[in-house]
Design a protein that fits this description.
CATH superfamily: Flavodoxin domain
GO molecular function, one term: oxidoreductase activity
Strand content: 15-25%
CATH class: Alpha Beta
Organism: Dethiobacter alkaliphilus AHT 1
Protein name: NADPH-dependent FMN reductase
Order of helices and strands: EHEHEHEHEEEEH
Pfam families: FMN_red (PF03358)
Structural class: alpha/beta
Radius of gyration: 17 Å
CATH topology: Rossmann fold
InterPro entries: Flavoprotein-like_sf, FMN_Rdtase-like_dom, ISF_SsuE-like
Shape: globular
């Protein structure tokens, strides 16, 4: 059983990657195999709206790396998507990836029944995380995925996904930020819960 993480950040190994790695570490602790994919390592061309995928589960664009990503998603039992927030939305790289994943959806929902999860990050505490998270959740639901949450046994964090920030406080009109999302304890707890919940759901579905 495997959970794949897909990072749509334009900056590899930074805050969104750290959130995704926290999700994966918790999933690994539950006995699930994991892999992190950085979309910046792959060439992804824009969808040209040729609609070939309406008739065959394939894309007309053959000279980039999307076929590799299709196979990784097909082989995974669960997929967690991550993106920093750009104007209350996902990054352009993540949006191109989403658009190009139409071949997995139009003829048949090839991701149907797979476990999904999402993490987002913005510098500000109220920096558009909720909308970016809703966009990723809507994408997963459209693909027929079973969207997992970060809900835990105790109260305090109840989101359909994990939201991180570097915002710390605002005193006398001056905002203070931490250096890394790893200093955001709420976000890390949320990521850990998401990883645990995804792993448990993947294992339960695999046992059925």
């Amino acid at each position: 059983m495997k959970i794949l993480a897909i990072n749509g950040s334009h900056r590899k190994g930074k805050n969104t990657a750290e959130m995704l790695n926290t999700v994966l570490a918790e999933a690994e602790a539950q006995g699930v195999e994991t892999e992190l994919v950085e979309l910046m390592d792959y060439e992804i061309k824009e969808c040209i709206s040729c609609n070939k995928c309406l008739f065959k589960p394939e894309c007309s664009i053959k000279d980039d790396d999307m076929d590799k990503l299709y196979e990784k998603m097909r082989e995974a039992d669960g997929i967690v998507f991550g993106s920093p927030v750009y104007f209350s939305n996902v990054t352009g790289r993540m949006k191109d990836f989403i658009d190009r994943s139409r071949p997995l959806h139009m003829v048949a929902n090839e991701l149907d029944g797979k476990v999904g999860g999402a993490v987002v990050h913005a510098d500000l505490r109220n920096g558009g995380q909720e909308l970016a998270l809703a966009i990723l959740n809507a994408y997963m639901q459209g693909q027929g995925m079973l969207v997992s949450s970060d809900r835990g046994a105790d109260e305090g964090i109840v989101n359909t996904g994990a939201m991180g920030t570097k915002f710390a406080s605002c005193e006398e009109g001056k905002m203070r930020f931490v250096k890394r999302v790893t200093q955001d304890e709420v976000a890390l707890t949320s990521c850990q819960r998401l990883g645990r919940n995804m792993a448990k759901l993947v294992q339960r579905l695999g046992a059925e």
